[in-house]
Design brief:
Layout: H1 2-31, H2 39-43, H3 51-54, E1 62-67, E2 83-84, H4 85-97, E3 100-106, E4 114-115, H5 123-129, H6 132-139, E5 142-143, E6 154-157, H7 163-166, H8 171-182, E7 186-190, E8 213-214, H9 219-225, H10 229-232, H11 237-243, E9 247-248, E10 258-261, E11 264-267, H12 273-284, H13 295-309, H14 311-324, H15 331-343, H16 347-363
Parallel strand pairs: 1-3, 1-6, 2-4, 3-5, 6-7, 7-11, 8-9
Antiparallel strand pairs: 10-11
Domain DJ-1/PfpI: 82-281
Pfam families: DJ-1_PfpI
Family: Belongs to the peptidase C56 family. HSP31-like subfamily.
């Protein structure tokens, strides 16, 4: 009996020790994340506050069409969805800064459902929310059946899980893509946006995607966060793009990756939006206007080096960026990738990324954008 109670006592002590250790680690981990003190300033960002948009204005060069989803729920579930704000706002301002007027359309027209992830919001995203003209366009989208493709130099399909439901079978969307593509104009799509491409048939009778290098939200990215995605969505995007003849270019999970196949430019996920939009400008025939790289993009660069060259090289790059070049670093993104590693059971990777996050805090002036 005594031995039994002794075992029980030490079991309870061990469990309490683990709980306390986890609590202390959690508190320390949260302390690594940036302070929210500057959030009120960021949320009030105006277009006039951003030199990229307010200075050295580029003369008008034409129009680009952005298309967002009209779907607000994921299939037969009660899970809300829509288009991703950051994927629209960042591309919208790249197009605008480079001299293009942007129209926003959707399958149903009118106000489209929007998904806003507070942790991913930056200066340009809040500027978009505070931009009366941009908001008018987003809340009064043009029905795609009213679009005349001849008016545009390019079309850009914004991601968001709703796109999986109303983009693929929409005949007007297929017509817009076909007409622009065959006129050697630019087709861009990011994240779930490439769902618009899967049923497009050219006048030759061939699939638009046949033998095209293409990217989109990967199976791994989808299934990690939505384990039953195969039953919720009409298809997994990666599988569908491949089945239509696409040569799928899969990059690292949740890191920037684009595919550029002549006038077809596609991006893997939201972190690909900046590069994709600027590549579209290049493909149209212009050199993209200079833009200061954001803290999020710098964090992505560090994570890419971590993926390919390891912890030490990533740490060296981080030191160069923050301490020497005085560049912003959004360390919360590095922390998020640590959490993703933990979700995958990659404990060593988790602690390495937490170490990078801690190092970023140590050398940072907490200057993020």
């Amino acid at each position: 009996m005594f031995k039994k109670y002794r075992i029980l006592k030490w079991s309870i002590i061990s469990i309490l020790g683990i709980i306390i250790s986890l609590f202390i680690f959690g508190w320390w981990f949260m302390s690594l994340l940036p302070s929210a003190e500057n959030r009120p300033y960021i949320t009030g960002t105006q277009v006039s506050d951003l030199p990229y948009l307010s200075k050295d204005i580029v003369p008008k060069r034409g129009k680009i069409l952005a298309i967002v989803t009209s779907t607000d729920t994921m299939g037969a579930t009660d899970k809300s969805t829509g288009y991703e704000l950051t994927e629209l706002s960042r591309a919208y301002y790249v197009f605008q800064a480079n001299g293009f007027e942007v129209d926003i359309a959707s399958p149903s027209g009118g106000e489209s459902p929007v998904v806003i992830d507070d942790e991913d919001m930056g200066l340009y995203d809040f500027a978009f929310l505070n931009d009366s003209l941009a908001q008018y366009k987003a809340k009064h989208t043009i029905p795609v059946h009213n679009i005349n493709p001849e008016l545009y130099e390019a079309v850009f399909f914004v991601g968001g899980k709703g796109a999986m439901f109303d983009f693929p079978k929409n005949k007007s969307i297929q017509f817009i893509i076909k007409e622009l593509y065959q006129a050697d104009k630019v087709i861009g799509a990011v994240c779930h946006g490439p769902a618009a491409l899967v049923n497009v048939t050219l006048d030759s009778g061939r699939s638009l995607l046949e033998n095209k290098k293409v990217s989109g939200f990967t199976n791994d990215e989808e299934l990690l966060l939505i384990s039953d995605a195969e039953t919720i969505f009409p298809f997994l995007l990666q599988d569908k793009l491949i089945s239509k003849g696409g040569k799928f270019n899969e990059g690292s999970m949740y890191l920037e990756n684009i595919s550029h196949d002549k006038n077809l430019i596609t991006g893997q996920n939201p972190w690909s939006t900046w590069k994709l939009a600027e590549t579209m400008i290049t493909q149209i025939g212009y050199t993209p206007k200079y833009r200061e790289i954001t803290g999020e993009e710098n964090a992505v660069k560090v994570l890419k080096v971590y993926e390919t060259e390891g912890f030490r090289k990533a740490k060296e790059l981080m030191k160069q960026m923050i301490s020497i070049d005085n560049k912003p670093m959004q360390r919360i993104l590095i922390a998020k990738h640590g959490i993703i590693a933990a979700m995958q059971g990659k404990i060593g990777r988790f602690f390495s990324l937490v170490g990078l996050t801690s190092y970023a805090k140590k050398i940072s002036k907490d200057f993020e954008n």
